[in-house]
């Protein structure tokens, strides 16, 4: 949706519900803290709402453990305490939105649904701008439905008249306030039910399979696949190249390990040319500058520094961006020493530094047939290609 499709004076808030304990998922921690694609489940929808141009702020409903797990609340966001039930958590969020006009719009969303396509938000807001007081995303029921008692399947239920209800659910703030204010007895599993109890019609817009809810442990695998689907994750490729001079009287650090050799590499740091190429390849895929920008040779702090620190930093930048390393391919160009005997140790060390599997790392080596500076054994070169999976921006 373009900004102009929304009234410029209308404010839109999001309420992100992350106050549950996740008993059915049984993950040993609240399910909204489980890691999916390198970041906590709740962070996915928090990032989506924070990036959506129509949403100016929000409320994260979460206990202390969950609050401690997120780096910082986005600008314009505040927090509220969870209630005993979902419905109470929404009421607590409404209480901290006291200074927002009734005319504002609000999206109420389960943090347990990490994959929020911006298009669903756009459809919901368009329904409200079109005059609805409430709108929810729904999907058709794909299976045959039956009434069932115990182990016996009974009458078929007409699924054509049924739909599955997802979140986010969108409301005029005043309508949602009235619905919660007069909620009366009888729990509601979602907010649209409370609105309908007021006699207010609820518009249904098209939902999306990526809004799948994390309810049981098996849903983690389903969500992992859905979030990595092309529409939510993009593949980014970066390349790195580095050269250092071989000198006598220095240890040879290569691929994160020390290798016995007559010469070592000269540089401001430990001059591990292979880790430098890998670091630059990762930073390149992130579009995040290069090793020199983050660790300037002019800074005495990096004099003699171990290069694993640069690589570890690059890996942390991937995680902070909500991405993950798909594959690293490193080529070391050296006449000597022979790299083959050290290849597996290098892979293991690089895997350890980046906390990824060695199966995601390739280490290759070649000579230049005694040609050029590498062929004359004056230096060693390395080149690397990094493939990352990053969230869509
Ligand atoms: N007191 C509660 C209960 C639930 N939620 C949130 O509401 C959403 C939907 O609830 P559900 O899937 O039932 O989550 P849990 O209550 O955590 O799960 P369970 O019922 O299995 O314990 C979740 O994002 C959950 O964190 C909440 O904010 N406050
Ligand atoms: C709000 C909801 O996600 C809409 O489908 C659903 O009602 C939550 O249900 P639960 O019983 O709390 O899992």
From TrEMBL:
Pathway: Isoprenoid biosynthesis; isopentenyl diphosphate biosynthesis via DXP pathway; isopentenyl diphosphate from 1-deoxy-D-xylulose 5-phosphate: step 2/6; Isoprenoid biosynthesis; isopentenyl diphosphate biosynthesis via DXP pathway; isopentenyl diphosphate from 1-deoxy-D-xylulose 5-phosphate: step 4/6. Gene3D superfamilies: 2-C-methyl-D-erythritol 2,4-cyclodiphosphate synthase (3.30.1330.50), Spore Coat Polysaccharide Biosynthesis Protein SpsA, Chain A (3.90.550.10). Its EC number is 2.7.7.60, 4.6.1.12. The keyword Metal-binding applies. Coiled coil: none annotated. Keywords: Isoprene biosynthesis, Lyase, Metal-binding, Multifunctional enzyme, Nucleotidyltransferase, Transferase. GO terms for biological process: isopentenyl diphosphate biosynthetic process, methylerythritol 4-phosphate pathway; terpenoid biosynthetic process. One of its GO terms (molecular function) is metal ion binding. A divalent metal cation binds at residues 242, 244, 276. InterPro entries: IspD, IspD/F, IspD/TarI, ISPD_synthase_CS, MECDP_synthase, MECDP_synthase_CS, MECDP_synthase_sf, Nucleotide-diphossugar_trans. 4-CDP-2-C-methyl-D-erythritol 2-phosphate binds at residues 242-244, 268-269, 290-292, 366-369, 373, 376. The record marks 24, 31, 268, 367 as: Transition state stabilizer. Pfam families: IspD, YgbB. Residues 236-393 are annotated as: 2-C-methyl-D-erythritol 2,4-cyclodiphosphate synthase. Residues 1-235 are annotated as: 2-C-methyl-D-erythritol 4-phosphate cytidylyltransferase. It catalyses: 4-CDP-2-C-methyl-D-erythritol 2-phosphate = 2-C-methyl-D-erythritol 2,4-cyclic diphosphate + CMP; 2-C-methyl-D-erythritol 4-phosphate + CTP + H(+) = 4-CDP-2-C-methyl-D-erythritol + diphosphate. Residues 237-388 form the 2-C-methyl-D-erythritol 2,4-cyclodiphosphate synthase domain. The record marks 159, 213 as: Positions MEP for the nucleophilic attack. It comes from the Bacteria. NCBIfam families: ispD, ispF, PRK09382.1. Bifunctional enzyme that catalyzes the formation of 4-diphosphocytidyl-2-C-methyl-D-erythritol from CTP and 2-C-methyl-D-erythritol 4-phosphate (MEP) (IspD), and catalyzes the conversion of 4-diphosphocytidyl-2-C-methyl-D-erythritol 2-phosphate (CDP-ME2P) to 2-C-methyl-D-erythritol 2,4-cyclodiphosphate (ME-CPP) with a corresponding release of cytidine 5-monophosphate (CMP) (IspF). In the C-terminal section; belongs to the IspF family. This is Bifunctional enzyme IspD/IspF.
